[in-house]
Design a protein that fits this description.
18% of the residues lie in helices and 20% in strands. With 387 residues, it is an alpha/beta fold. It has a six-stranded mixed β-sheet, sandwiched between helices. It has a five-stranded mixed β-sheet with strand order 3-1-8-5-6, with no helix packed on it. It is rod-shaped and about 110 Å long.
Amino acid sequence: MAESNFIDYVKIVCRSGRGGRGSAHLHRAKYIPNGGPDGGDGGRGGDIILRGNRNYWTLLHLKYQRHVFAGNGQGGGINKSTGAAGEDKIIDVPCGTVAYNAETGEFLCDVMEDGQKVVLLKGGRGGLGNVHFATPTRQTPRFAQPGEPMREMTVTLELKLLADVGLVGFPNAGKSTLLASLSAAKPKIANYPFTTLEPNLGIVSYRDGKSFVMADIPGIIEGASQGRGLGLRFLRHIERNSLLLFMIPGDTDDIKKEYEVLLNELATFNPEMLDKQRVLAITKSDMLDDELIEMLSESLPEGVPTVFISAVTGQGITELKDILWAELNSEDNRMMAVKREELVHRNYDVGMLAQDFADWQPDFEDEIVDDEEYYEEDNYDEYDFDE
């Protein structure tokens, strides 16, 4: 996975900007002996913002960017001049990216649409200048507010692919072969046992110029929802799929049992997956004769549309497309699309985060900032920012 260009989770240290302090300047001009206060406000600190960008499909561009620091606000000036605001830092992410607090596992936000902006960390507010504290009995205040401090958080960004159809099955079920035959995607295919190591997306053409997106997920093994194999890392990619296409080879000893094992792994990982529309495809059917197909049909799971296919010979491929298109555009699936937009994200397991990023180290040396002058107690405690 270290050499792969498909990066679906990264860890970044984010720090918003500190607010600039207000000025305690007193106006001085010729022939104006009592000019009074004219200190300006400090500028606000920069924000850390996540922005959806449809031109990205992985988090590869963030793999080696392990820290994002926004700019600090500048201090206020004379003549009631407001300090410059700190520079905002925008992190472009693919649509479907979810942010978690890496230290607590708490869900922070979900970026679903192109151009959508989410403020991850708010910059500190600038302090008020002494002009705000002038009163009839205190006409020359010689103090001002400091700016609010910066905020820092270590964030984990996790990509969940947006696709219409997700392929679910054990290794060597024929998922990559099907995707390659239906689309222009070129996943690795070989005649020896192995599993796909990264998800692949392909656009499947249908009649009258219509199309839908299909995602090939690495093979699931029994116990994947508990962290075995690669399943746990990639199960999240099918949380947003509209339709799940279960693929089981025709030479399997017990098709119904294997289907139930796959369904149980999805339910253990996220019970909401049981609400998704499902289709069952029996692959490698070119090795089966009509009598055997009829025999197998009697023991298939009930209530699930089933089709016997062979990606090599093209058997059942047209029928499969018709079934997938009908299910994608069914009324039940349209209702599920509304629910999918309101996907409830669970907080992340902190232990799993620590395991995934066991060798992660920040690539910066933290600055030691002397705030003794910046946060003077007599100037800071007496005035609350919310006043």
